[in-house]
């Protein structure tokens, strides 16, 4: 089936854009705001704290994210190619900064954050996803006349663009982000037309790399316990095993229709740690039930299908590779996050797109949506 996109004369995030994609993202953002409020309201009120603390911050995060997405659509993405080295360099500098004593701060066993006054934190690894995708897209889209696939030299250069940021992220360590970036990198190389041996080699290298990271101690004990609890939930019953068990109970207790917004006993009792961030899907499972959770999955499916349609429709190789990278990133992160809440994937501490509380991830996600809309608007 041929998918076509209509060129628009008026361009912006709200006009001339893929409105189906916009609608799905906006609905997810609204649902996320409500779920974050539901996850934190009662506990904060019971402890004489502001029950709207997380609600207000998440609304601000969403507003800033929408502004970033809009700003990303203003300049033709083909002109952004010239600034790709600066985007990549900025991403690397952020990853270096978190490892500098006095700048970086440790959260849940990973030195992944830069703290600012007022309790604000920024996670450079989130924006590094974009810099890696854009950098790889630039290299893999440079073809000589008559070439239908990147050369081995170009693939090596693309892997070189990925290597330094990945090493810095492993040093934090942030295993979840490493897995997401690795999935995006392999997908981009596979769909760029590169030889099959590159894909097979990268898959093998990825497995070996994870093993070496664990064996060498680069993976923290906190994250290693999370991996062990995936294999055996009883291996760490008071920490990661407890979290997984409570997540399953919370999702399962929602049944078909759920307990109703703000009425989930597991959610209100905060039996699931990090339920407003990495485990936000448990709130949806308990309070919205199977029907509400399925609607969220449907919205994600629409986002991915529209992103795939944009990648397929554009004839510009750079725009196509950027779109493919975003599709791979979004697909794996959604699957990993929801899968880990149900025990189908190991717990790696990755947020759920557009729903989880947090500014860094929200900003990166919305910039990626802006890139997709940019490619859509300029497709002929």
TrEMBL record:
Record has Membrane as a keyword: yes
Entry EC no(s): 2.4.99.28
MF term (GO), any: peptidoglycan glycosyltransferase activity
Segments crossing the lipid bilayer: 20-39, 59-79, 86-107, 166-190, 196-214, 288-311, 317-338, 350-372
GO cellular component: cell division site; plasma membrane
Chief site of localization: membrane
Pfam hit, one: FTSW_RODA_SPOVE
Subcellular location: Membrane
Coiled coil: none
Substrates-to-products reaction catalysed: [GlcNAc-(1->4)-Mur2Ac(oyl-L-Ala-gamma-D-Glu-L-Lys-D-Ala-D-Ala)](n)-di-trans,octa-cis-undecaprenyl diphosphate + beta-D-GlcNAc-(1->4)-Mur2Ac(oyl-L-Ala-gamma-D-Glu-L-Lys-D-Ala-D-Ala)-di-trans,octa-cis-undecaprenyl diphosphate = [GlcNAc-(1->4)-Mur2Ac(oyl-L-Ala-gamma-D-Glu-L-Lys-D-Ala-D-Ala)](n+1)-di-trans,octa-cis-undecaprenyl diphosphate + di-trans,octa-cis-undecaprenyl diphosphate + H(+)
Topology relative to the membrane: Multi-pass membrane protein
One GO BP: regulation of cell shape
Keywords for the protein's UniProt record, in alphabetical order: Cell shape, Membrane, Transmembrane, Transmembrane helix
Class in the EC hierarchy, top level: transferase
This protein's record includes keyword Membrane: yes
Annotated PROSITE patterns: FTSW_RODA_SPOVE
Pathway: Cell wall biogenesis; peptidoglycan biosynthesis
PANTHER family for the chain: CELL CYCLE PROTEIN (PTHR30474)
Protein's name in the database: peptidoglycan glycosyltransferase
């Amino acid at each position: 089936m041929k998918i076509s996109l209509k060129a628009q004369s008026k361009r912006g995030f709200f006009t001339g854009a893929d409105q189906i994609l916009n609608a799905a993202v906006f609905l997810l953002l609204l649902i996320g705001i409500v779920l974050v409020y539901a996850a934190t309201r009662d506990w904060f009120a019971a402890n004489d704290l502001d029950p709207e603390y997380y609600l207000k911050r998440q609304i601000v995060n969403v507003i800033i994210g929408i502004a970033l997405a809009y700003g990303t659509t203003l300049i033709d993405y083909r002109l952004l190619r010239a600034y790709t080295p600066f985007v990549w360099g900025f991403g690397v500098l952020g990853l270096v900064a978190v490892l500098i004593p006095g700048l970086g701060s440790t959260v849940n066993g990973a030195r992944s954050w830069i703290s600012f006054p007022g309790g604000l934190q920024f996670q450079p690894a989130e924006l590094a996803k974009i810099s890696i995708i854009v950098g790889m897209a630039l290299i893999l889209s440079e073809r000589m006349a008559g070439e239908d696939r990147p050369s081995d030299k170009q693939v090596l250069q693309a892997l070189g663009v990925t290597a330094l940021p990945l090493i810095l992220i492993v040093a934090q360590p942030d295993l979840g982000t490493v897995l997401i970036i690795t999935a995006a990198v392999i997908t981009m190389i596979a769909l760029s037309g590169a030889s099959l041996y590159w894909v097979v080699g990268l898959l093998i290298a990825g497995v070996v790399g994870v093993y070496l990271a664990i064996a060498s101690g680069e993976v923290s004990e906190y994250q290693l316990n999370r991996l062990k609890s995936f294999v055996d939930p009883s291996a760490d019953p008071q920490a990661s095993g407890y979290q997984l068990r409570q997540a399953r109970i919370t999702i399962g207790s929602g049944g078909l229709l759920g307990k109703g917004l703000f009425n989930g006993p597991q959610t209100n009792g905060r039996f699931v740690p990090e339920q407003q961030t990495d485990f936000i899907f448990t709130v949806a499972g308990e309070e919205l039930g199977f029907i509400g959770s399925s609607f969220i999955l449907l919205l994600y499916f629409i986002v991915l299908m529209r992103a795939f349609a944009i990648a397929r429709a554009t004839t510009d190789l750079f725009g196509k590779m950027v779109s493919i990278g975003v599709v791979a990133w979004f697909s794996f992160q959604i699957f990993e996050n929801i899968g880990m809440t149900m025990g189908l994937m190991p717990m790696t501490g990755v947020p759920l797109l557009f729903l989880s509380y947090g500014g860094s991830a929200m900003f990166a996600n919305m910039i990626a949506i802006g890139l997709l809309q940019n490619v859509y608007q300029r497709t002929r």
